[in-house]
Write a structure and sequence with these properties.
- By secondary structure, the protein is α/β, with parallel strands linked by helices.
- The chain has helices at residues 13-16, 66-71, 84-99, 102-111, 118-125, 146-157, 171-176, 187-193, 213-218, 236-245, 277-297, 330-340, 369-376; strands at residues 3-7, 23-25, 34-37, 53-56, 75-77, 138-142, 161-165, 182-183, 196-199, 223-227, 248-253, 266-268, 318-325, 345-353, 356-363, 381-386.
- A hairpin with a 2-residue loop joins β14 and β15.
Length: 388
């Protein structure tokens, strides 16, 4: 079987190079079976029936209407953790930039470049840019996923006292955390205790604007806040007021906009968190692996709108993949249709996520076309795909 793919953004060749001769690149979005994307907005793109999957070479998917795509049986993948080290390093840099006025000092040098005695002048001027060290300071990490846990561990190594909060902390994440990280049961504990606060949560209805006048009021005077996750997590109007009053010492954000750019106390970075050669390569490789496993085997790993589900390599006589609503007796419907057609089931995997579910079925003979039609026409079935 041959597949067509489209790239809405440049994708690292180290990843695309893992696509073999079964894959052909197309510049026509409408004819693609799979799409690779980084930051391109997909909300207004009309999708055809050809589109089976979208892979975001990165973690955030707010540029993809994944909830709507789920209704059409389009599986959306992301690449959690692939860019985690790059973002972690930027957060550490952000803390250092904010605690010591390095940016101000560099600007002073530029302004005094024509001073022949700049080496002597600098000794008098440098006191204006003096700051504080991060050693021994308290860092609060909100969100302990792939990036948050790396930030927390690195901060421990730098001698900081680290507090972490994540109500959905996975067992794997907990194992990966340094034992010195203090786990907080509520986010308010971080607001009240920490000198630095860094945010690493997705932009959901429950998290948008979580850093606002109310939460800032709980914080220590002179707190430094770093946001390398999503600009929507911070009410930036409230942030500017807190910077003006001195409640917040510095706000480091990786999301430039007209609200914060050039404003007092704001260190605005032009979205460089994952902009490293290594991160782009890692994301591309992971995205391609996810797409290949899905198209060739029907397996789902790291989807944001369908559940993880796998039957391994498709080495039986036949395999079908079914996107459907998460309703009762769907498995019974599928097995009845196959049983009535005398198609023997070798293995089955079924997983659900919210309103949607996904089923993989291996059989020991080629599935007749009329059986596929019956499955596709079943109530609450969104899409049926013959893997082999």
């Amino acid at each position: 079987m041959n597949y067509k793919y489209n790239c809405l953004n440049p994708i690292a060749e180290v990843g695309l190079g893992n696509l073999d001769d079964k894959y052909t690149r197309t510049e026509n979005f409408a004819e693609a079976d799979a799409v690779f994307v980084r930051s391109a907005k997909m909300d207004d793109l009309a999708v055809s029936e050809n589109l089976l999957a979208v892979a975001r070479a990165g973690a955030g998917v707010n540029n993809i209407p994944h909830a709507e795509y789920a209704k059409k049986g389009i599986v959306v993948f992301n690449t959690p953790g692939a860019n985690a080290n790059g973002v972690k390093e930027l957060v550490i840099a952000g803390m250092l930039l904010a605690s010591r006025d390095i940016v101000g000092g560099i600007e002073w040098v530029k302004e005094n470049v024509n001073d022949p005695a700049i080496n002597k002048t600098a000794e008098k001027a440098k006191k204006a840019f003096a700051g504080t060290e991060i050693l021994g300071k308290r860092l609060g990490v909100i969100g302990l996923g792939a990036i948050g846990q790396k930030v927390a561990n690195a901060a421990v190594e730098l001698g900081m006292e680290v507090y972490g909060y994540d109500p959905y902390l996975s067992i794997d994440a907990a194992w990966n955390l340094d034992h010195a990280v203090k786990h907080c049961k509520n986010v308010e504990a971080i607001y009240r205790a920490c000198d630095f606060i860094t945010i690493h949560v997705p932009a959901l209805d429950s998290t948008k604007g979580m850093i606002n006048a109310e939460s800032i009021a709980m914080m220590k005077t002179g707190v430094i806040i770093i946001n390398a996750a999503r600009d929507a997590l911070v009410n930036e109007k409230d942030m500017l007021e807190a910077l003006e009053s001195g409640k917040v010492r510095k706000y480091v954000t990786d999301f430039p906009n007209s609200t914060t750019a050039g404003k007092k106390g704001c260190i605005v970075i032009p979205h460089l968190g994952a902009s490293t050669a290594e991160a782009e390569d890692n994301c591309a490789v992971m995205a391609v692996k996810e797409i290949r496993d899905f198209l060739e085997n029907g397996n789902i790993t790291n989807s944001v709108n369908y559940p993880a589900c796998s039957l391994g390599v498709a080495n039986k006589a036949g395999r079908i993949a079914i996107c459907h609503k998460n309703e009762a007796n769907m498995i019974g419907t599928f097995t009845s249709i196959l049983g009535n057609a005398k198609v023997n089931i070798d293995a089955i995997a079924n997983k659900s996520r919210g309103d949607f579910a996904y089923t993989l079925i291996d059989v020991d003979a080629k599935i007749p076309e009329e059986v596929i039609t019956q499955l596709a026409n079943s109530e609450s079935v969104i899409r049926v795909r013959v893997i082999k």
